[in-house]
Amino acid sequence: MAIDKLKKKIAKGRHASTLKRDRQGLKHRARNRSALSRMKSAIKDVRTSGSKEALTKVIPIIMKTGQKGIIHRRKAARLVSRLTKSVAARQA
User: Fold this and answer.
1) Using an 8 Å Cβ cutoff, are 55 and 87 in contact?
2) Is 64 exposed, middle or buried (0-12, 13-18, 19+ CB in 10 A)?
3) Disulfide engineering: 90 pairs with which of 37, 50, 55, 72, CB 3.0-4.6 Å?
């Protein structure tokens, strides 16, 4: 049954591996988009509140998105550095 459905899709000139990569791509894009959105929302919270508690919650989120390759690791470090600097300036 499932093989028949797959054969119908492949009959249009697509390979089984291409169909699988499409499915995987959809999952990865959704995961990456949600992680990026979560990071951006957390950054906005720090910028609006300016508290050290919010900063300590945000730093692991930013670094994890950098480690997973959703954003570049140097961009993650740059974001953390700038947020830390802005929170310190507000505290002083």
Assistant:
1) yes
2) middle
3) 50
